[in-house]
Amino acid sequence: MSQNPPSLRPDLAPRALIQDAPRAGQPTIGMVSLGCPKALVDSERILTRLRAEGYAISPDYAGADAVIVNTCGFLDSAKAESLEAIGEALRENGRVIVTGCLGAEPEYITGAHPKVMAVTGPHQYEQVLDAVHGAVPPSPDPFIDLLPATGVRLTPRHFSYLKISEGCNHKCKFCIIPDMRGRLVSRPAHAVIREAEKLVEAGVRELLVISQDTSAYGVDLKHAEAKGHRAHITDLARDLGSLGAWVRLHYVYPYPHVRDLIPLMAEGLVLPYLDIPFQHAHPEVLKRMARPAAAAKTLDEIARWRADCPEIVLRSTFIVGYPGETEEEFQTLLDWMDEAQLDRVGCFQYEDVAGARSNALPDHVAPELKQERWERFMEKAQAISEAKLAAKVGSVQEVIVDSVDDEGATCRTKADAPEIDGNLFIDEDFEGLQPGDIVKVEVEEASDYDLWGRLLEK
To answer: Is 308 inside any structural domain?
Structure first.
């Protein structure tokens, strides 16, 4: 069983799970999915379309007639990882199609790997399909190639990411995602609900709501109502909560209307969990970032959320070493952490990204100082996490089982999202548990990031 701390990169998705057995003579495509959960959903949509056209999905290079690499361009380190993955696919297979965020810079990719067969940008599904058709012609058999009702999924069957919008209207100076993925485009609420219903009918026990800016969902649609569902995050969360699955909200900007979600959490319709990208706490740093937030008001909002829903869990990510960050500004962030007492925290050191406006800011922080501040920040976050988890010893938690092996069951509480947060381990009397089971556990032990417990009942 694996333990935390997990990777602190905010742009990493869970590992893709591919299980598919091709029929004789069936054209087969491999998929390497990098980047955030939003990119993982794009990969699922591409593979679903390919499966509908008669392609099989290969879990390895050797069994694939061609490989799609869905790339990330969030940070320069993510770009390097994408180039490395493309190179590996070329070496192991030789027939490679590139898509995703880094595909918005085709010359960057072809300059490093001129032998790729095609390059397409993010969520350009039709262009990806055209490239696959050119490389590996389809050969469908409608009597054999049956597409699952929920399409092809790259996550375990008991949880699924539910993407509600594309793009972002913010202009944060360190981020180029709006340049790559465009402005906010929300899906109609009735389409989101229908997808969620199909997922729950297929056995999904947890829906992870994702977008670039979940709080802004429906703004571009003027919160229009269609087919009985209004395109507003509060209404959408309420409708999703009626389906009987856990509903977890990610990437929620702390706008004032977020407070309307808290009663839904107190009622049990939505998990008492908010993933909010605060990024920093000092007002001048936030101003240089062009962030739509004010730290002082945020503390007031956090206090109000906790008053309305005491069990609420808050996760966030932060940037240290942003250009111009002084020791005083960094200390303000540490002091803010002491007050905010966030439950789950990720942090990464600022990196220049080609095309980002923050590159031109003065007074860039030296690498060794960024590292030193990152270590101090994580020491603070770890101490807060350790104290909060220690307080849970003796409590009874409802958990969802993610996996079971010979050593025990790896589970998550309502406070833990897949891959990025902690785990709860059951190492006795776990026989009979299956992934997707939701059980009650008494917490017996805690570490910095994880819990151990005793099974009470299914």
So the answer is: yes
pLDDT tens, position by position, 149-195: 456 667 778 999 999 998 889 888 988 878 877 899 999 999 999 99
**Nearest-angstrom CA–CA distance, 83 and 69:** 10
Q: How many angstroms separate the CA atoms of 374 and 372, rounded? A: 5
**How do residues 197-217 score in pLDDT, each as one tens digit?**
999 998 999 999 999 899 999
DSSP symbol at 317:
E
> Distance between CA 227 and CA 229 in Å, rounded?
6
Which residues fall in the annotated binding site for [4Fe-4S] cluster?
Answer: 36, 72, 101, 168, 172, 175
Lowest-confidence pick of 27-41, 249-263, 329-343: 27-41
- Binding-site residues, please? 36, 72, 101, 168, 172, 175
Please indicate, yes or no, whether residues 177 and 70 belong to a single structural domain of this protein: no
Of the candidates 278, 253, 209, 208, the one whose C-alpha atom is nearest the C-alpha of residue 418 is 208
81 shares its domain with 210: no
- Please give the structure tokens belonging to residue 244: 């009987």
In angstroms, the CA 302 to CA 160 distance is 28
Are residue 196 and residue 308 in the same domain, yes or no? yes
373 and 307 co-located in one domain: yes
